[in-house]
Specification:
globular; two-stranded antiparallel ribbon; 116 residues; single chain; 4 helices; two-stranded antiparallel sheet
Length: 116
């Protein structure tokens, strides 16, 4: 008799989750030519949160950039302005972008825009 395969959920200690540093976040924003206020509007955040993410702390406590924000940054860098669950809305900058290749040990970097 064959034993059934039991899948155990991954523990938090074994998960390797990518992170975005404050410097990478700032570089992302600048690569799109966005001011802090414009980045906040694009991400649906307050300008103050952009400042916290770029500083890396809030009132002396570390601030981690959430996965949802990291994914939104990637989408915006690829020219996706909105998503309704089935299709994406692209802005004019989507046509002016080419994805940049990153070394295998580093996460992909946002594409540089031709419009600055």
């Amino acid at each position: 008799m064959v034993s059934p395969l039991i899948l155990m959920p991954e523990s938090k200690t074994t998960r390797t989750e990518m992170t975005m540093t404050p410097e990478q976040f700032r570089d992302w924003r600048r690569s799109l030519g966005l001011k802090q206020k414009e980045a906040a509007e694009q991400l649906g955040l307050k300008k103050r949160m952009i400042q916290y993410y770029e500083k890396g702390n809030r009132d002396g406590r570390p601030v981690e950039i959430p996965k949802s924000i990291r994914l939104a940054c990637y989408a915006l860098s690829m020219g996706v302005n909105d998503f309704d669950g089935t299709s994406a809305s692209s802005g004019p900058q989507a046509l002016a972008r080419e994805p940049l290749a990153a070394p295998p040990d580093q996460p992909p970097r946002p594409a540089e825009t031709l419009q600055k």
